[in-house]
Design goal:
- The structure is a single chain.
- By secondary structure, this protein is an alpha+beta fold.
- It is built from 9 helices and 10 strands.
- A hairpin with a 3-residue loop joins strand 1 (59-62) and strand 2.
- The longest helix is centred in the first third of the chain and has 14 residues, at 6-19.
- The N and C termini lie far apart (46 Å).
- Keywords: DNA-binding, Transcription, Transcription regulation.
- InterPro entries: Bact_HTH_transcr_reg, Chorismate_lyase_/UTRA_dom_sf, Tscrpt_reg_HTH_GntR, UTRA, WH-like_DNA-bd_sf, WH_DNA-bd_sf.
- GO terms for molecular function: DNA binding; DNA-binding transcription factor activity.
- This is GntR family transcriptional regulator.
Length: 246
């Protein structure tokens, strides 16, 4: 460690203890006073080291209590294979059921107008009417996924599938719902990226602000290539992996 700044030495030592299980999830790391004594360091140096650990997502502060090791145990994998996306049920519900988890979600739908970005993804004009549905998905009561979906009203208006979570086809997923109005042969296209969580996303997913999330842009198209639904899905990058199959 010779030559490395003291704050980096502290951060490296604590990181190693966390990775090796010396400091376990939910355990309090040494206090500022303890770290100052152990490393003969100043308040500023110790605070800088702890900030590095927080930025790395290894620890989190609890007001009035101290700094604790975060639980970053992987929950599992979310399947993004053709089979998973073509299930007769909603993909998320089918996936969690296969993993032995109890899936549930809250949703709200409203009619709005397509922004230029959403219009481009749906192949419609900006300002055209769409049904926008927002989801908060949980498994065994733990937050897993956030999603926002848009469907052109030109396709669904006046049908039994106008509201994704109401009516006889509620909760059955895009494929089943569209099949009910004569649109079949759907395929899903996805783009995946990583970015920091917004404050609202972090609160809903139960992670620190600006934590890394996986952002999935999914669009269902029919046999002619016409988009019938597009959605933004967000999951925690430190707790879930995406499993793709050709």
């Amino acid at each position: 460690m010779t030559g490395r700044p003291v704050y980096q030495q502290i951060a490296d030592d604590l990181s190693e203890q966390i990775v090796n299980g010396v400091l376990t999830p939910g355990q309090r790391i040494p206090s500022r006073a303890e770290l100052k004594s152990l490393y003969t360091a100043s308040d500023q140096t110790v605070d800088r080291a702890v900030r590095i650990l927080k930025t790395a997502g290894l620890v989190e502060g609890q007001f009035g209590r101290g700094v604790y090791v975060r639980d970053t145990t992987l929950f599992g994998a979310l399947r993004r294979s053709p089979a998973a996306l073509s299930t007769e049920h909603a993909p998320f519900a089918a996936d969690m059921s296969e993993q032995g988890r109890k899936a549930s979600w809250e949703s709200s739908s409203l009619t709005t107008t397509a922004t230029a970005k959403i219009a481009a993804r749906l192949g419609i004009r900006p300002g055209d009417q769409v049904m926008c549905t927002q989801y908060e998905c949980t498994a065994d009561r733990q937050p897993v996924q956030l999603a926002t979906s848009w469907e052109p009203l030109a396709i669904t208006e006046g049908t039994d599938v106008l509201f994704p979570e109401r009516g006889p086809y509620a909760g059955l997923g895009v494929r089943n719902r569209m099949a009910a109005i004569g649109i079949s042969g759907l395929t899903a296209r996805e783009l995946v990226g990583a970015r920091p969580a917004s404050s609202d996303e972090a609160e809903a997913l139960g992670c620190p602000p600006a934590s890394a999330v996986l952002a999935i842009e999914r669009t269902y198209v029919d046999g002619s290539g016409r988009p019938v639904e597009t959605a933004d899905l967000v999951v925690r990058a430190d707790r879930w992996r995406l499993a793709y199959e050709a």
